Amino acid sequence: MRSGRRLWTQLSRDKGGMTGFIIVLFFLLLAVGVWAGVLGQDWSVANGGRWESPGAEFWFGTNLLGQDVFQRSIFSVRTAFEIGIVVAVLSTFVGAILGALAGWYSNTWVDGTVLWLMGVLDSIPFYLFVAAVAFALQGNAWAMQLAMIATFWTTTGRLIRAEVMKIKSREFILSARAIGLPDPLILTRHVLPNTTHILLVQTSIAFVAAIKTEVILSFLGLGVHDGVSWGLMLAESTQEVLAGHFGNFLAASLMLFTLVMGFNLLTDALQDAFDPKQAAL
Amino acid sequence: MSGADRNLLSVRGLVVRYPAGVQSAASLTAVRGVDLDIPQQGIYGLVGESGCGKSSLAHAILQLKPVAAGQALWHRQDLLSMRGSQLRSARRKIQLVFQDPLASLSPRRSVLQTLVEPLDHFGIGQAGTGQAGSREEQASAALETVGLSPDLRHRYPRELSGGQRQRVALARALITEPELIIADEPVSSLDVSVQARIIELILELREKLGIAFLFVSHDLAVVGQLADTVGVMYLGKIVEQGAADDVFARPAHPYTRALLAAVPVADPDHPRPEILKGEPPSPLTPPSGCVFHKRCPEPITPCSTIVPTETSLQDSQTTDHRVRCHLWNSTKN
Amino acid sequence: MSKPVLTVRNLRVSIRSQDAPAMAVDGVSFALREGEVLAVVGESGCGKTKTAESLMGLLPTDTWDVQADAIELDGVNLPMQNEREMRKIRGQEISMIFQEPQTALDPVFTIGNQLCSIYRRHRNKNRKEATLAALDMLQQVGFADPRRILHSYPHQLSGGMRQRVMISMAMACRPRVLIADEPTTALDVTTQAQVLSRMTLLGREFGTSILLITHDLGIVAQYCDRVLVMHAGRIIEKATVHELFTDPQQSYTRRLLAAVPQVRTA
After folding, report:
1. pLDDT tens figures, B108-125
2. Helix (H) or strand (E) holding B32
């Protein structure tokens, strides 16, 4: 698509953005590798002895159970992406729909309801909410994602609502109403496509937020149960570090830090690339 | 009383009121009872300054703004109370063109997509097989009618110049074969030379296709070039209307005269524009009596309390020249 | 022959870009004389606004490349490179007003606040003196109730009123030059008459020379003394207003004059 190509040229000029992009791409390839069964498959195999130091066989050493820390940290990339993608896409989607409805029908009961809902969700302390959802869903694998989606959508919702309120008074919308196009059609065909700059950036932000949140939740014991994630690894490491074994801690922190950093760089560059004021030049 | 037969569109007593909302405490009456007639294939120029309600009037006809009272008779039916399929077929025949062509074309849709949308919506042209080909042909034909190359159909609005965009907007309006086009400040944001060409195009469209126009503008010079009939609006009321020749030659209402006198003439020897005293009024707090009395250079006693009715000046061969002013009412008495 | 207040020689403005630099202004030279109203007229994209912005040093240097043999105010070169010096000159020696009055005023401060702060900062007046000066200036631009305006916020005023407030702010320091970039394009014709009349009146009274940028030849004819016609970044014709309208030299100028729709009176 035309605008896609333009976006790419602008992005490629931004060194920070390109660095971020490469990092994210790299991690994505790792995740794909894990999905394809090529990498990180031995994450649960207890091959080595307890807490072996990093060496030729185990690049990051082993944990309490003799599992390869390196394999575990690679597998965690897949976990991160799974959670990240699901939460990012769905929360943005929900936010877009509800935000668009609220903005289009602003100052009516529709808007009032959505705003009220946003207010309620925003005022609940997040981790309490997640704990409640996790408890209610009693170990359902999707409890964590659901909780995240249910709270993350409000940010996107507010942004889209504001943008839709601006767009709906623009003349091309009036043209569509003038020929009598029904509201849902106007929203999907004319309004929402003009908010993609917001949606793309929000998706990117939500992705990172989801990963970070998962780390904390796993750390608190509310997160991933089968499989491994950086959060779990960090949780494991709290005890280990006291005993002087840093493998888990270093691996998880390093990878988490790099991915989040990469994403932040990419998101900043995306925001600049989508900035309509810059595009005018 | 003009017959519905002679006129394509007859507006009677139109009142457009925006209800009190979160933003403003009071409701805003943008149009306070307007009567106007647009004859078949006629061009009606609606002139006025910002806040006078001309855009609200133009949009209200297509039910795009909240109507509190009045009728808009179209083929003997009231547009304002139409619903469903009746409204749909009316909307097909009355099209709208706006001021800012960049804002009136959807930025993410190509020219072709924009032109085809009304065709799809109204179900015009071949349905079923071969539909795509026929749609493209119709779009290309529309582009040619407005003097653009059909090659432009795959472009996006931001790739076109202001004049080209406005032509595309006109092409979209034409594609449904309307009887009336409501044009809201269509040339205001264009350069003078481009303006001239669009004006030519509009006159051509009337000649060749017999389309009537309701042309809303603040620019008297532009209206003067196009309109057969002129209506001057001030704070929600039409204060003077009649054949363009009559209104320009013998402006009756003090506001019309002030408007004509305020335009800077491209002739250094011409006297400078006269200044109309006072500030433009707010539609939220309209003056009592005649809406113009506070700024009028020649007010008389009834002006501040009594709303003037429309008087016919009986000075025209063609269209009735009417003015809403006590100065003319009293001479009648 | 009055002496030049502003002299511009060979002004060139281009966008710094990867591809070939696009010349927005391509070798413009002119002189603005004392007490005159000089019009710069042309269609959109001709470079008139960029010329004005470059004179004020308002174009960000990372995107725009501004070169000139000379830009002189009263014979002294303007310190374009030194932002701090330019800030002292802006508003005090050279002022500018723009097309969109809504974005030029700060919405969270009253008019009085904004206008008085100019008097306090640039003319060293205390609060009381500044208020009196502000009230006087507002009256001079034609407000019947200056006190009410002083206490109003920008959003409470109409476009024409805001533009007159802008003029009073621009003229508060009695600058040598006022650059007005399409000041009335967004206004109604009756408001335009009021704004232009007040602006030129003040100019004469304060001895301020005005550089008036417009696309409207009617405004040029009725309010200006001399005119520069610009096209594609260059000045293609310079003349007094009388000369231009009676005997235009360039074919572009003639086309421009021919395209102006005249209000018919009979």
Report:
1. 889 999 999 998 888 876
2. strand B28-39
Paired tokens of A236: 């494991």
Say if CB C187 and CB C195 are below 8 A apart: yes
Question: Which of C158, C193, C259 lies nearest to residue B280, judging by beta carbons?
Answer: C158
Those residues with Cβ within 8 angstroms of residue C196's Cβ, 6 or more apart along the chain or in another chain: B264, B273, C183, C184, C219, C222, C223
SS3 A186: helix
- Of B48, B62, B35, nearest to B215 (Cα)? B48
Judged by CB atoms closer than 8 Å, whether chains meet at B273 and C222 is answered as yes
Interface contact flag, B108 A2, Cβ < 8 Å? no
CB contact under 8 A, B49 and C241: no
Q: Are C135 and C86 in contact (CB under 8 A)?
A: no
**Residue closest to C178 by CA, chosen among C93, C79, C119, C87:** C93
- Smallest CA–CA distance, residue C43 to chain B, in Å, is 6
Q: What are C175-223's pLDDT values in tens digits?
A: 999 999 999 988 888 889 999 999 999 999 999 999 999 988 999 999 9
Contacts of A172 in chain B (CB under 8 A): 103-107
**Nearest CB to B121 within list A107, A181, A193:** A181
Q: Is B47 on the interface with C (CB under 8 A)?
A: no
Sorted by sequence, the CB contacts under 8 Å of residue B96 that are 6+ apart come out as A174, A175, A178, B58, B59, B62, B64, B173, B181, B182, B183, B184
Q: With contact defined as beta carbons under 8 Å apart, do C265 and B270 qualify? A: no
How near does any CA of chain A get to the CA of B172, in Å?
Answer: 10
Name the band, by pLDDT with cuts 50, 70 and 90, for residue B69.
very high
State pLDDT tens for residues C224-233.
Answer: 999 999 999 9
Query: What 3-state class would DSSP assign to B297?
Result: coil
Min Cα separation B238/chain A (Å): 24
Nearest to C81 by CA among C64, C61, C53: C61
- Work out the end-to-end distance of chain A between its first and last CA atoms, rounded to an integer number of angstroms: 20
What are the structure tokens assigned to B82, written together? Answer: 């139409």
Cα dihedral sign, B263-B268-B271-B272? positive
Q: Is there a contact between A161 and A103 (Cβ–Cβ < 8 Å)?
A: yes
pLDDT band at A53 (very low <50, low <70, confident <90, very high): confident
Q: Which residue of B has its CA nearest to A172?
A: B104
Q: What is the overall mean pLDDT for chain C?
A: 88
B20 in contact with C at a CB cutoff of 8 Å? no
CA angle at B20 for the pair B14 and B25, rounded to the nearest 5°: 130
Put simply, whether A194 touches B (Cβ < 8 Å) is yes
